Amino acid sequence: MKTYDAIVIGSGISGGWAAKELCEAGMKTLVLERGRDVVHLKDYPTATMAPWEFPHRLDLTEKFKEENPLITKAAGFDESTKHFFIRDADHPYVQEKPFDWIRGYQVGGKSLIWGRACPRWSKYEFTAPARDGYGIEWPIGYDDIAPWYSYIERFAGICGNKDGLEAMPDGDYLPPFEFNCVEKDLQKKISAKYKDRFMIHGRWAQLTEVRDIHKRQGRTNCQARDLCMRGCPFGGYFSSNSSTLPWAAATGNLTIRPFSVVHSVIYDEQKNKAVGVRVIDANTHEIQEYFARILFLNASALNTNLILLNSTSNRFPNGLGNDNGLLGKFICHQNYRGSVGGNIDGFEDVYYYGRKPAECMMANFRNLKKKEMDFVGGYMAFMGCYRRRGATTDGPQLGEDYKKALSEAGSWGCYMYMQGETIPKETNRVWLSRDKKDQWGIPLLVTDVAYDQNDELLLKDFLQQASETLSHGGVKNIEQFDNHWAPGRDIHEMGGCRMGRDPKTSLLNGWNQLHHCKNVFVTDGACMTSTANQSPSILYMALTARAAGFAVSELKKRNL
Ligand SMILES: Cc1cc2nc3c(=O)[nH]c(=O)nc-3n(C[C@H](O)[C@H](O)[C@H](O)COP(=O)(O)OP(=O)(O)OC[C@H]3O[C@@H](n4cnc5c(N)ncnc54)[C@H](O)[C@@H]3O)c2cc1C
Ligand code: SF4
Predict the structure, then answer these.
(1) Of the bound ligands, which one is closest to the alpha carbon of residue 107?
(2) Would you state the pLDDT for residue 405?
(3) What lines the ligand 1 site, CB under 6 Å?
(4) Is 157 near ligand 2, meaning CB less than 6 Å away?
């Protein structure tokens, strides 16, 4: 078949939702995925392996690291997860300035390997960029997206507590993972000291309780094994593979075509709309064309920019929908540079059980309702307390004493690391190389993204405030750390095809439609007008489900 009702490009977090919503609405939907197929349960080869069953005890060989200096930097990349990430040599790009572009090319995309943090944005993050003059106005507000957050939370299964915070609104949550005893103590001390700093249970896409809707997906409770990035045999965390894609397939309306590298969108100048996509078979390099009435771009933020920039025609010589020349500009990301940590005395007679695949969160308390700092934007933090392995021993760390010490629980530690907003700037951008191409003849993406003074000030404030907060919580010997990561390593790249009210300053309208090509919807991170401080993926999911519903209703009204 070459013609469908809808085509979705990419099968990751956002593409899975587009597929589910469109298929449920009765649309014959083709999902084009550049990577191999990964079938839930069947294709998780390391999911139940013990460390000693791996040839290198989870470590990577020096040769592998030398050959893959970029992708081996990714959080959680080891011998048990490496099959869900790309290899550097297969997917080059050009770094005008250092930028770590972390990718997972397979059915399910990065939904298999994501960290699963799912806090909501508050109403303030939608208004702060225009209010504080560092961005354009979002065309939607919190009230537009709140019902869609709930819709996603119920289906995907997000755990968390109802904390009643303005900075991080409550959702439709399953029960949270418990704090351990030291986290409970820390929370009490922080609350006693601060009126505006809230250490809360994190909100995570883990099934702490299984409801009927999850059973119907074939998923069951998270067993607290903390091996999620290998793929979960219980469906304990949300991924496209365990949830949205099988649900879409069950409608009988889904076709997934793996190994299909989308080259560009085909624009019909007579019809004034997009009519399909050009695809290169990843293995044979054969070119195919597929057609549909609507297209959803969900190839992940930078790949979606690449595809649109590569979709040129007489009408759009600079890329599809790019009349204002802003496509590929205002790329932003999140600032993960700062962390602090220290020791907690006492509590040596208490322990915890299981491996909680979750962390505590601290909601943003900077510039929430008005600009109060010498920087704009805010930061949230992830945090936790844990017991180290190995009782403290004097003398050399070897021999029988050391072995014995290792079988004892050690002292308590505590950490906190930031997730900060970055400013969307025209100078942070991506474009297509004029002379360098990949193995499929597609121009390489050039990335030109850097931190700025605002990021440095925000980082400095986090390090000071996090240290102060932990010290009031009883944490000793606090150390501050700036990892100096390049942008991109946060794996929360966004923007380039931003939403907005005005076609002069944005590419997409409030329904994620290209202003100038209405049957093309962009609902992955490329659409983001600003980054906020919260983890972004649940917002991509909510925007996708909302846009898919709108697209179907517009099709029914024959508006597309
Ligand atoms: C280690 C790690 C931890 C993370 N933790 C969190 C977290 O805690 N919370 C959070 O919100 N986010 C987190 N993220 C980020 C999250 O994974 C991404 O935001 C999310 O996956 C983006 O969804 P997406 O649909 O845009 O892209 P993806 O999930 O990456 O899916 C895109 C898909 O498109 C395919 N594709 C790309 N180009 C083409 C093409 N030309 N043709 C066809 N197919 C194509 C890709 O192969 C891929 O399957 C984390 C990511 C990683 C790797
Ligand atoms: S911690 Fe939960 S979700 Fe993660 S792999 Fe284990 S059972 Fe699955």
Answers:
(1) 1
(2) 82
(3) 9-15, 32-35, 74-76, 102, 104-106, 109-111, 113-117, 260-262, 298-300, 303, 307, 491-492, 524-525, 535-537, 540
(4) no
Alpha-carbon torsion (388, 391, 396, 400), positive or negative: negative
Ligand nearest to the CA of 207: 2
Structure tokens at 398: 């070897």
Stated pTM of the model: 0.97
Percentage of residues of the chain with pLDDT beyond 70: 99
417 within 8 A of 381, measured Cβ to Cβ: yes
266 C-beta closer than 6 A to ligand 2: no
Q: Could you tell me the pLDDT band of residue 278, with boundaries at 50, 70 and 90?
A: very high
What does the block give as tokens for 209? Answer: 């309780």
pLDDT of residue 470: 98
- Structural tokens at position 99: 């930028």
Per the structure block, which two tokens stand in for 169? 């609104």
CA distance 365 to 541: 25
Half-sphere exposure at residue 459, Cβ-oriented, CA atoms within 13 angstroms: 19
Q: What is the CA radius of gyration of the chain?
A: 23
Phi-psi region of 330 (alpha: psi -120 to 50; beta: other; left: phi over 0): left
Atom of ligand 2 nearest to the CA of 357: 1
Residues in a beta bridge with 344: 412
78-125: pLDDT as tens digits: 999 999 999 999 999 999 999 999 999 999 999 999 999 999 999 999
> Which of the listed residues 232, 241, 242 should we mutate to test ligand 2's pocket, taking the one with most ligand atoms within 8 A of CB?
232
546 alpha carbon – ligand 2 mean position (Å): 29
d(CA 309, CA 429): 12
Q: What is the rounded CA–CA span in Å between residue 89 and residue 68?
A: 7
What is the distance between the alpha carbons of residues 236 and 242, in angstroms, rounded to a whole number?
A: 9
- Calculate the average pLDDT of the chain: 97
527-544 pLDDT, tens digit each: 999 999 999 999 999 999
Angle between helices 537-556 and 13-24 in degrees, nearest 10: 30
Ligand 2 centroid distance, CA of 76 (Å): 14
- Distance between CA atoms of residues 101 and 109, nearest Å: 14
Q: Ligand 2 pocket, 236 CB below 6 A?
A: yes
Q: Report residue 262 as tokens.
A: 């989308």
